[in-house]
Design brief:
572 residues, mainly alpha, four-stranded antiparallel sheet, two-stranded antiparallel ribbon, 21 helices, 44% helix, extended
Length: 572
Amino acid sequence: MRDEKKKRNEELDSFWDIDELIPRRRAVHHAANTEAAEIIVPPPASQQPPANAEAQTIPPRGEVKPRFIPPHTAEEEANRPAPLLEYTPENALIRHVRVYSWKSNYRYYEGFTRDAERLMNAKGAECPRTPFFSYVPQYGQMSRAQLEWYLWWRSHVRQGIYLDTDYSYVLLYVYELINLSDRMDAREVRDTLCRVWAHYRDTFYQLDTYLPEWICDCSLLHRLPPPDFESNTLLSAAMSHSTLKEFFIPSQGDDGYLSALLAFCCNYDYRKSKFYVGEHVALFDKAILSALREVVAHTSKNGHLFVSAKLDDSRLKRDAYMGALCSYRIKKKIEVEYCSFSRSHELRYFLTDVIKYTENKIRGALGIRSRLSIYALPTAIRELLDNHLDAILPQKRAVGKPKEPVSADYEKLYELPQKPLSLQNAAAIERSSWDTTERLIEALCDEPEKEDAPIEKAVVSEPTTTASPLSPAFERLPLPPSAANENDSLPTAAFSAYHAFLCAVRERNPAAQKKAASAHGMPLEVLADEINALAADLLGDILLEESDYGFAVIEDYESLLLQLTQETEQKG
């Protein structure tokens, strides 16, 4: 009894002991010796060498043993199968194509192929649309009503009429075309796949994942050229969702070829420019495509820039119709040697500079001041683009609002009277001004002025030859036009502090620009911003912009910069 009571008390005391609640960990056992040990396993008794055989030695460390090749792998390497088809397509980027048979035979899709052959010429009757869903649709999965709707829908598709239907019906028809491609005209099968994809891709976005790849496989297996898509948008979509983008490049240098260059071989998309809006869209598209066509014709062979570019060959091995329900006789392995244009950094940088330089020319024609940075565009290409774009772009717009012509009769209404300089007239003007001031003070004051403290009038005495002929008020009056000096309208004195920097800008000398900026104790960009701020206050526009040789004067103000620097030198 006492033992049970004692045990109970111990349990109550240890109830709040956390260590008792945590399970204990097993101690980690560490071996005494951790160095590597060499173990020799004796061969089985059936393979024991005879007693008089020489002892075998283990090869020393570092000696390379011959690689063991399994019998089936060695046989495959020694007897590689010959390709079923081998050819060189008429494509500047596809070097060679080899088609091999599938490595192993299988039969689990032969039933689908037999059903497709049996129903190939079946015609459906008009019937209501019946829903159908399957991840891998087959004929045996459909009910009678679903099969009737499929045949009715398929008969319309063959006539070019695309009714609304379910995704599984579209996928079943694609499988049917693939498995009957050797029983039908291969080009018609490929073109039908293109049409089905074009009409249903907006409704079923999943088709973009499969159809471009299967269209490419069908073309390669049957030695077909790239398909003629209905629009460049469809061509771009096919290239975007295909592993072998180079196959879809058109064989001629047309707009589809140029669109492929812009989409996949350029780091700058001019369509995202903030100036690509409104009425400028047509001008951008026309000028950039025309400039790119001119550059391609000048720098390439046979209308293809890729042929002359230094691009490395690539090799692609792929299984035909990957992911599709495909019978054994259609399943093939394809090996393609091609020239990958999208991986060439040299070509990508070159085309990017061409597009940016063309947009700069468009901006200049539209009167836009900002410019894009050009890195390494050759001088010959710049001159080629200048000569080509000057002929197709509109003339450069004048800065500011153009002045409307004014008739001579209208100008006479605002002509100032031609009066000689008279001191008497100036004095009369001053007296009239003081009279007006007195009247305003009397009208605005809250309390009337006392009679004993009248406002003193300014006494205007007749000028003498020794006194100043003009009063302070008259000195602030503007001079008549005949007395103004034309050179005073130029803010020469305001820019005199930047004479050395402006001379370096005029001479296009980046080193002298940096030296002049250091003399002012500020970075080159800060000094240029300070001059542009001063020019904006005085002229209403900036004076300098960035260029390949430091900062340069805007083309419209080159004569002004020359006049400023020359006058500063003369005054100095």
